[in-house]
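Continuing the series of single-chain predictions for the mutant panel. This is the parent chain; the variants come on the following pages.
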Amino acid sequence: MPGFWTRTRITLEMIKWEHSIFALPFSLTAVLLAARGLPAFRTIVWILVAMVAARSSAMAFNRWADADLDSANPRTSTRAIPAGLLSRQFVLGFTLLTALIFVLAASQLNRLTLYLSPIVLLTLFSYSYMKRFTRWSHIVLGLALGIAPSAAWIAVTGSLDPRILVLTAAVTLWVGGFDVLYACQDFEHDRSVGLHSLPQALGIPAAFWAARIMHLTMLGLLCWFAILFQFHLAGWLGIAAVALLLAYEHSLVSPRDLRRLNAAFFTMNGVIATVFLLFVAADLWIRR
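Parent structure:
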């Protein structure tokens, strides 16, 4: 078994910590809108700590819970636990440590964030078991990331504005849609071992259509969100940019060709979230 620092590096690689950027820009969008600009620096720092810690804990828990499933899947058999690079005990310890950091960060924001932190962790951890029971596990993963904007709003204001739930719904469908595409890689394996997903239940062509419908609905929700928050030109241009990037993302893969799925899944989704944040920030700056 590698030394402590080597195991820490392997753990960071295992949880893909750099992919925290998926939900983080949407959280920062909520932060800017809630504060009508920039909140206190201390608030931003603790929100960032909470976001990274929560996602790290959820990803580590997923690898711990799925270790046996990963070892049976040729695509995932080289992950850290099946490959013997990390023990399940070490990964579980990392999960608990980052969960405690998340609760600490929540306690530094306000009372409501602290009270809700166990519910957030329960939501994040529940995804790992959904594929064993339901084809709709993609939506549960979407919700795990989708609650981030609402959580960020609560972190800034200490209360929940129902309008931010529209962004939560949009992010839920955005993540759910690209997770449907990602699950197409495991179509044959999932069918052979009895795991559930939309590709496994409907077939890959129908799953692609389900992902497209989710992403079109997401764009509709973003338009509703723009109306609720009275976006000006820059904000609407941001939604148009998201639409174009989503169209490009879908053009990278097809039911017959999944070779560029990693580019569509990892690279493009980080770009989409960041572009939306930048345009909303510009919209707020122009209004001031």
